[in-house]
Amino acid sequence: MDGDVVYSKKKTNAAAVTSSSSSSSSSRKRPRRITSTKPNYKEKEEVEAPTASDIEDFSFSGKETLEIRAFLLEWYDLNQRDLPWRRISSSNEGKGDNDEEGSERRAYAVWVSEVMLQQTRVQAVIGYFNRWMQKWPTLGHLARASIEEVNEMWAGLGYYRRARYLLEGAKKIVEEGEFPKTVSSLRKVPGIGDYTAGAIASIAFKEAVPVVDGNVVRVVARLKAISANPKSTIKNFWKLSGQLVDPSRPGDFNQALMELGATVCTPLSPSCSLCPVSAHCRALSLATQESSAQVTDYPIKVVKSKPRHDFSAVTVVEILEGKDTTDELQTDGRFLLVKRPEEGLLAGLWEFPSVLVGVEADLATRRHAIDQFLKMSFKLDLKKSCTIVLREYIGEYVHVFSHIRLKMYVELLVIRLKGGTHVLHGKPDSKTMAWKSVETKALSSMGLTSGVRKVYSMIQKFKQDKSKPIPVKATKKNIVSKTKQNRC
Ligand code: SF4
User: Fold this and answer.
1) Which atom of ligand 1 sits closest to the CA of residue 219?
2) What's the superkingdom here (predicted)?
């Protein structure tokens, strides 16, 4: 994941154990491969994904478990990255990890960082995390924040629902008066799933529970050479990881396993020669025995389903106020924003008025759909209740979500309302359909999604280009008149 790991030059036990492993490798079995009856995977169609029960017999022996724990923790102590969320408990000067306040501070930091890490790379998270902790250093501070502030802080990370859950979870914990300390109690907090609960409980409160993310799945699949589809057998990965967790240092162990996957046992080019647990790696053992086998054969690659293609007409409605000017595009009006429904994609976030349209929708069809939307939502009749100063198609922009590829046809509509914004139907921020009109300055500082920001930057660029003086063509007439002027 990141290339910033500084490996210690101190020799780990791995090398020593690797040599001893070669003698025992012949006794290791290849994972079973069964002819597929229901091929789901393009790249491995001949392999049937074993069911959950098929891999139940994979387990770590007592000796294996002890050695993996010891080697991995030793490696982690020497090589762990210095990340801001790992410093939180030690920054509580004079108090150790075990004091209540320190553990809760750590739990909060782990929670925020883990949710952010589900969104993007470690390096990108560092800036977001530092800004977040500066604004809301404790759970109590976060619980008093507004959703607008949280969205603003989260802008650019995507999956805004996760940010909303962080806020809701903080409010709930503060209300109840105590930070939950176990996986079972943490799971009751909105937005906290198995992964985050395991991370908080093990890292902050030392509960000996596993944490399974993509990195852990990869390492465990390789250690045991498991060919099963990790998606359909994920429970078994939790079970196997649970066997490995060190009861005296569960948090460090879980972080070590994830760190190994992120920095050494990477998806495409694992650095097996630097791996502290290579002696226990079946995938490596098989790759050493057979030239056609590779450690990257594990875990099996699951072909992602194709994203759905959606199309939408997006109209940036700018409402001009005050007196007419000669250059309407230079006058910043107020922009109409609509709040998305509280459920579904980008729930509760603000966007420019938009309507889903069909793939073949031409400009006239899209305009008709938007006109209907404005009429229905705001009683804004473009023919009767306003003067259209400008209406122009700007261009298209494709935004890719995890499961949807959304093509947006963007248009700018500049209007003057006959009677001011109060003629628009409904109270702003009403529960039925929340909307508001905001100035350019406020728009720039709002927590808008990257898709909305992109649309807004398209509008700004259009305005800038439009306001540039049009270069005069060097026609014969121009040249003659310029020559005459020069003579004068
Ligand atoms: S594949 Fe390589 S890096 Fe990954 S666990 Fe095995 S030996 Fe370690």
Assistant:
1) 5
2) Eukaryota
How many A from CA of 264 to the centre of ligand 1? 7
Q: Which CATH number fits domain 308-467: 3.40.50.10860, 2.40.50.1070, 3.30.565.10, 3.90.79.10?
A: 3.90.79.10
Of 1.10.1040.10, 1.10.340.30, 1.10.1240.10, 3.40.50.970, the CATH number of 13-297 is 1.10.340.30
Active site amino acids: 114
The residues, any chain, with a CB within 8 Å of residue 351's CB and separated by 6 or more, are 314, 337, 338, 340, 448, 449, 451, 452
CA 195 to ligand 1 centroid distance, Å: 23
Look at residue 314 and tell me whether its pLDDT is greater than 70. Answer: yes
Specify the residue with its C-alpha closest to ligand 1, atom 7: 278
pLDDT-derived band at 307, boundaries 50, 70, 90: confident
CA distances for 289 relative to 278, 294, 406, angstroms: 15, 10, 47
Q: DSSP class of residue 468?
A: S
Ligand 1 centroid – CA 278 distance (Å): 5
Cα-Cα end-to-end distance for the chain? 70
Going by pLDDT thresholds of 50, 70 and 90, the confidence category of residue 291 is confident
